[in-house]
Write a structure and sequence with these properties.
Catalytic activity: Hydrolysis of (1->2)-alpha-D-(4-O-methyl)glucuronosyl links in the main chain of hardwood xylans
Organism: Lysobacter panacisoli
Protein name: Xylan alpha-1,2-glucuronidase
Family: Belongs to the glycosyl hydrolase 67 family.
Bound molecules: 4-O-methyl-beta-D-glucopyranuronic acid
Strand order of the largest sheet: 7-8-9-10-11-12-13-14
Helix content: 25-40%
Oligomer: single chain
CATH architecture of the largest domain: Alpha-Beta Barrel
Distance between the termini: 39 Å
Domain Glycosyl hydrolase family 67 C-terminal: 450-673
Number of helices: 20
Number of domains: 3
Length: 678
């Protein structure tokens, strides 16, 4: 059955004659199996090629026929050593794929400096076949642009996944470490296929139990499964663990007993997991413990843990998603205010992980002002793959354009072209460490991600972590071809749907720079009216500030002055409503209801127009998808069709509820031609 379990690694047969053409390139396979990574690479190629070509290639020791695929490193493979290829600049994880001749016979070589590079190359080669790319004259060189390409699981020990919409956690803690669900291996294969090389197993709202011997053993068992696939395990660490599981009276990072506790804990973990990646820490944010509980700084806390893992080559990833207990004048400013003064004060094995925007994974946010503002501290990007604020698993929203928009945003801190991508890949500030994190959307659902299209968000995240300069559209094409079909009349409409889908969500939820208007705490469905409760920034009225005079959050120099956290040219543009891109208008400005927008429509009319446009787009997706019936297996087609129906119903809910609510302020009629709420 087509239940989506295979993800994009479907390896279904290439039809007829075409398959014969491809088969000629890979009838024989020269690939070692001397190490676990080599064995896994060879197994993947045999599996993939058998599936795609309908016949299993012959495993050979050398090139003794036409159409040989040669895979390995100069050290592990004599035929590769003999080719004397230039691989130095590929690093440990890079690879080349080239069409060559060996003793006059046509062959294809996948070569790397290390086994893991060869594995990445093998997945790339399979992708070429899966997407029906030409393979006659290959000359590909690839190396990742970032070092750490990581998933963050927000998985709790009781298997609940915070903000997870794909069932319970795939980590079956109860049966670990002895029972290793085959799913763990498939997880590793999927991640390796897109270059993900690190995973944080547990929620940043961490349980201290995760660091007890019993759970360290369980994490070690998972690390053993992932290791051949080049994936390192990290753990989220609860800052107060020395008190909770260590019996200490304090977790003060400057207290010698606390420092010793963490150093001993690190030693213990490294005994079980020799290549343990390190700790991810959420501190002094949303009620989590942290160094500020003891009057210390984030740097004090991060450095203490960094010292503990340093002897083992470990890292500490410290999250910048912090905000204080007191009601802020503008929550958007807090991370910048707390972290910029700490630039240069972190150990060299600390990275600071920054969400793409300053509020919280909204359907659209301007890029976080920290990007470009900490030249001496390696900043990691944190994207959210799981769609906490974008309709969970039932709303179709391809996040490629969201990720791309952030990465392409120009911080201008070193003049034009100082994009966020260049901050993240380290080229702008010459960071020694680089990386990207994605909050996983993975769970125990058969299709892993809660919906078929949400698999694309895992996929595009991985591809962009590998190379933040890739195009979201190209990646959507790739994924669609691997996941659904290579027929142009299927690929094109699906890619079309995907590319506009996130903008549609922005339109029907939070158009024109509005943000954080979702239902309280669950964040599903409209709640622009949410007010009251424990803190102002956990309401909606705090963010939209609608009155009878207008709407929007004034973050200009006359308002909260958040604009001044950006480089001067960017700040000047955001400070001026006329120069602010309209998609951020109400993020930065409070404007009157009759403010003239770029379309010529008054703001109120434009707002209503956007809501309707979002709903209309979903209707269009349903139409397109219905037209694909019979072109996609019935099982997946039916589920997507049903989810799109849910999405359309709920897009209308968003539109109608939002318009009705904001109309109580604007006191204006619906513009002519707009359908009244149903
Ligand atoms: O977006 C908020 C989520 C919390 C999450 C927090 C964070 C893990 O609503 O569920 O907690 O962000 O990123 O720390």
């Amino acid at each position: 059955a087509e239940d989506g379990y295979d993800l994009w690694l479907r390896y279904r047969p290439i039809a007829g004659a075409e398959s014969t053409g491809y088969r000629a390139h890979a009838t024989r396979l020269v690939a070692g199996d001397a190490t676990p990574t080599q064995a896994a690479t060879r197994a993947e190629l045999l599996r993939g090629l058998s599936g795609l070509l309908g016949t299993e290639p012959v495993v050979a020791a050398g090139v003794d026929g036409d159409g040989t695929l040669i895979v390995g490193t100069p050290a592990s493979s004599k035929p590769i050593a003999a080719l004397k290829l230039k691989t130095k600049d590929l690093g440990r994880e890079g690879y080349l794929i080239r069409s060559v001749r060996v003793d006059g016979r046509p062959a294809t070589v996948i070569a790397a400096n290390d086994d893991i590079g060869a594995m990445y190359g093998a997945f790339h080669y399979l992708r070429l076949l899966q997407t029906r790319a030409p393979v006659d004259a290959l000359d590909i060189r690839e190396a990742p642009r970032t070092q750490l390409r990581m998933l963050n699981h927000w998985d709790n020990l009781n298997r609940h996944v915070e903000r997870g919409y794909a069932g319970e956690s795939i980590w079956d803690w109860h049966k670990l470490p002895d029972y290793l669900d085959p799913r763990y291996t498939d997880y590793a294969r999927a991640n390796a296929s897109i270059g993900i090389n690190a995973t944080v197993l547990n929620n940043v709202n961490a349980s201290a139990q995760q660091l007890t011997p019993m759970y360290i053993a369980k994490a070690a068992a998972l690390a053993n499964v992932f290791r051949p696939y080049g994936i390192r395990v990290f753990l989220s660490a609860r800052f107060s663990a020395p008190v909770e599981i260590g019996g200490l009276k304090t977790a003060d990072p400057l207290d010698p007993a606390v420092r010793k506790w963490w150093a001993d804990k690190a030693d213990e973990i490294y005994r079980a997991i020799p290549d343990f990646g390190g700790f991810l820490v959420k501190a002094n944010s949303e009620g989590q413990p942290g160094p500020q509980d003891y009057g210390r700084t984030h740097a004090d806390g991060a450095n203490m843990m960094a010292d503990a893992v340093k002897p083992h080559g470990g890292k500490v990833i410290w999250r910048a998603f912090v905000y204080s207990h007191e009601t802020p004048d503008d929550r958007a400013k807090q991370a910048y205010n707390e972290f910029v003064p700490l630039d240069g004060k972190f150990r060299d094995n600390v990275m600071v992980q920054v969400k793409n925007g300053a509020i919280d994974f909204q359907p659209r946010e301007p890029f976080h002002p920290l990007f470009g503002a900490m030249p001496k501290t390696p900043l990691m990007m944190e994207f959210q793959i799981t769609k906490e604020y974008l309709g969970f698993a039932t709303h179709l929203a391809y996040l490629g354009p969201l990720f791309e928009e952030t990465l392409e945003a120009d911080t201008q801190v070193r003049g034009l072209g100082s994009t966020v991508a260049k901050v993240v890949d380290g080229s702008l500030h010459k960071y020694a460490l680089t990386g990207m994190a994605g909050v996983a959307n993975i769970g125990s659902d058969r299709n892993w991600s809660g919906s078929h299209f949400d698999q694309a968000n895992w996929y595009v995240y991985g591809r962009l972590a590998w190379n933040p300069h890739l195009s979201a559209r190209d990646i959507a094409q790739e994924w669609t071809r691997m996941t659904f079909s290579n027929d142009a009349d299927v690929v094109q409409p699906i890619v079309g749907m995907m590319m506009g889908s996130r903008e549609a969500v922005v339109d029907y939820m939070t158009p024109l720079g509005l943000h954080h208007l979702m239902g309280r705490s669950h964040h599903y469905g409209p709640g622009p009216w949410v007010e009251g409760g424990p803190r102002a920034d956990w309401t909606s009225v705090y963010y939209h500030r609608a009155t009878k005079d207008g709407i929007g959050f004034d973050r200009t120099t006359h308002g909260s002055d958040a604009v001044s956290q950006y480089a001067p040219p960017v700040a000047r543009a955001f400070d001026d409503a006329a120069k602010t891109p309209e998609q951020f208008l109400l993020w930065f400005h409070h404007v009157p209801w009759d403010y003239t927008t770029k379309s010529g429509r008054p703001l109120w009319d434009e707002l209503v127009h956007r809501y309707s446009q979002g709903v209309g787009y979903v209707g269009g997706m349903r139409h397109t998808w219905n037209g694909l019936r019979g072109r996609i297996d019935a099982e997946r087609h039916a589920q997507v069709a049903t989810f799109l129906a849910i999405q359309e119903k709920e897009a209308k809910w968003w539109r109608d509820a939002s318009i009705a609510y904001f109309q109580t302020f604007s006191q204006r009629p619906l513009p002519e031609g707009e359908a009244p709420p149903e």
